[in-house]
Amino acid sequence: MDNCLTARRWLAQDQQLLHGTAVSPSAEIPRPRKGVKERTLPRTPLEKCRGGEESCQEEEELPEKTRGKIRSPGGDLGAKKKKKKQKRKKEKPNSGGTKSDSASDSQEIKIQQPSKNPAIPMQKLQDIQRAMELLSACQGPAKNIDEATKRKYQFWDTQPVPKLNEVITSHGAIEPDKDNIRLEPYSLPQGFMWDTLDLSNAEVLKELYTLLNENYVEDDDNMFRFDYSPEFLLWALRPPGWLPQWHCGVRVSSNKKLVGFISAIPANIRIYDSVKKMVEINFLCVHKKLRSKRVAPVLIREITRRVNLEGIFQAVYTAGVVLPKPVATCRYWHRSLNPRKLVEVKFSHLSRNMTLQRTMKLYRLPDATKTSGLRPMEQKDTKAVQELINTYLKQFNLAPVMDEEEVAHWFLPRDHIIDTFVVEGSNGILTDFLSFYTLPSTVMHHPVHKSLKAAYSFYNIHTETPLLDLMNDALIIAKLKGFDVFNALDLMENKTFLEKLKFGIGDGNLQYYLYNWRCPGMESEKVGLVLQ
């Protein structure tokens, strides 16, 4: 951060030498949002990407999964954000006219040549250029469209995705299906090798767990990090139709250490009136020490090649940052279930005029559910649940179309992974169901609490029971199961219950993206797809 401020001061003093105008040193310094009370967990999918990433062009262009902080009913953030200091590596002199890693990964800088402005010494121009490059690196990934339109997306500009400024009125593939697919894997930087991960091997699964646990998504202050359990990873990565070659890893050639990963799983997705066989891209992760090696773009190209070989040319993914071009933008909301713990780990802060006891009273829930006939889903319910979900999701513009096998995989209860409860009428007919999955976060640097147990709203279908009552029961069940917080996106009909059930709004967005498919954008309430 100190380097960023120094760069701004240099530019403020010298900008007029280049352009004849001065800039305010603080013009681009981000200010913390007011009215924020609670801290959001790391952002969630090619969303779910990396956490704690260094600010370089590679990271700005690639999906990232953090969710910022949240505002909940009742007040302001009680503590200022800690400023992270970024270490600046010493630049090595280039040879042969080649650019260093840092230079090639930063945004292109164009300045006037000395011959056109002889009054400016060469050393001064070089100092200004270095300051501009450093300032560019200090600007994090774009969080909204306005920021994104000012960025260059060197990688995404080569991909079949709509441009940010493109007005879209048509529906269809951006590129036609290919007949000639590259058979050889893409080349990795020297010293690295591809490896298809065999997740049925306990040691390999543990390696993936360790990579994600140590290098995946963190919150902005590095206080919380997603903790996907090995069992959760098997559930998320091996649905019906999964292929081993879509579990794509990168290892160090010398010691075989796993340092990168990306995955794809098959899905039938309806986009407006078109149903397409595509893949969901997830778990893009590169080891923190390799973020400047341009491994992530190669991972994306390689998983695309492997998917294309199976005759699939479209994909869906999500990201916490703005890339070219979102089809929809959703917001995370958070409902406190264990206020005391959330305050102790600094996920939440007590606002003015609120004591801990008053806060606990505010979020108190009944000891028992209200809906008659509510029970855990069983194998015999699979067909009825399939009919319920596919019928209900027809009202949305982006939604999965699930067969019976997929419904069984995604919704049958699994301890510490997925909970699903159905509502059975007196006539034995299922009318509604609720579901949420389990995704804890590691609490970093706390002497007592090591984990934060979070429930994530999955699919909630109602035909007879009011959605407000159904979701209140979901909160009660999650509380009884020991969850600390319940998270939900403002998609589908969720906006009808979020404020009423005392959810707090997050200040970070989750963008939805389609790869090689163009269609008009949609509001969050028209999104009927949830990715883990």
Tell me what the structure shows.
This protein is of the alpha+beta class and 532 residues long. It contains 13 helices and 19 strands. The strands form 2 sheets. The protein has a 16-stranded mixed beta sheet that branches. A 3-stranded antiparallel beta sheet has the order 4-14-15, covered by helices on one side. Strand 5 (247-252) and strand 6 form a beta hairpin. Helix 1 (2-19) packs across helix 4 and helix 11 (382-392) packs across helix 12. The model is unreliable at 1-37, 42-60 and 66-116 (pLDDT under 50).
What characteristics describe this protein?
single chain; 532 residues; alpha+beta; 16-stranded mixed β-sheet; 3-stranded antiparallel β-sheet; 13 helices; 19 strands; 25% helix; globular; disordered N terminus
Dominant shape = globular
Helix content: 10-25%
Question: Spans with pLDDT under 50 lasting ≥5 residues?
Answer: 1-37, 42-60, 66-116
pLDDT averaged over residues: 82
Distance between the termini: 33 Å
Beta-sheet strand percentage?
Answer: 15-25%
Write the layout of secondary structure elements.
Elements: H1 2-19, E1 38-39, H2 57-61, E2 69-71, H3 101-105, H4 122-138, H5 145-148, E3 192-196, H6 202-215, E4 224-226, H7 230-237, E5 247-252, E6 258-271, E7 274-286, H8 295-308, E8 315-319, E9 328-336, H9 339-344, H10 356-362, E10 374-376, H11 382-392, E11 398-400, H12 404-411, E12 418-424, E13 430-438, E14 441-443, E15 451-452, E16 454-457, E17 461-462, H13 467-480, E18 485-489, E19 504-515
Parallel strand pairs: 7-8, 16-18
Antiparallel strand pairs: 1-2, 2-19, 3-5, 4-14, 5-6, 6-7, 6-11, 8-19, 9-18, 9-19, 10-12, 12-13, 13-16, 13-17, 14-15
Helix pairs in contact: 1-4, 11-12
